[in-house]
Amino acid sequence: MPPQPSSHTTNPPGQVIRISPLAYLGCAFLLFAVSFPIFGWPAAFGWLVIAPIVAVGWVARVRTTITPDGLAVRRLIGGRSLSWSQITGFRFPKHGWARATLIDGSEVSLPVVTFDRLPQIAAASGGRITDPYAAAAAAEEAAHDAESNGERPARNQPNTDGK
User: Fold this and answer.
1) Using one digit for the tens of pLDDT, what is the confidence trace for 116-158?
2) Contact 120, 111 (CB under 8 A)
3) Does an H or E element contain 134, and which?
4) How far apart are CA 135 and CA 57, in angstroms?
5) For residue 27, what is the DSSP state?
């Protein structure tokens, strides 16, 4: 449950997660690669010039925007807006982009969003998503504080040394 807004708290800014602009360099290499068949036989391979144009459009357009109101997903053709009330959770497959699980059981792919972006998503979501990295760091800091105070932190392993 997100924290209640007050007049003293600011809305966190939205996060736009997009493909790195360095991908345009790959598009330039693709244009270079298709230029040889195009110049060699323009009548047969002239259509190949479409591939770098589509690649540039894809890099420029594909993104996921996270705001306190929800998610906005943009693809090469089309897009979709999702409010937080429609989303029940996230799934991070081993390969590929994250997926938002909706109330009706369907999933929506979130372009460019990976598990590494979770701190950004947590910051922009307004408290609706927790940051596992921050939770792990807080637990580690609490364990370190407990050790420095002379306390033994709780362990998940049985005590086998007889003490």
Assistant:
1) 888 888 888 887 888 877 777 778 888 887 777 766 555 555 5
2) no
3) helix 132-148
4) 38
5) H
Amino acid letter, residue 160: T
Q: Which residues pair with 144 in a beta bridge?
A: none
Of 12, 54, 51, 11, nearest to 33 by C-alpha is: 51
CA nearest neighbour of 27 among 4, 50, 3: 50
Q: Which residue has the tokens 């195009």?
A: 38
Cα(68)–Cα(160) distance, integer angstroms: 49
Rounded to whole angstroms, the Cα distance separating 31 from 35 reads: 6
Each residue of 60-91: pLDDT tens digit?
A: 999 999 988 999 999 999 999 999 999 999 99
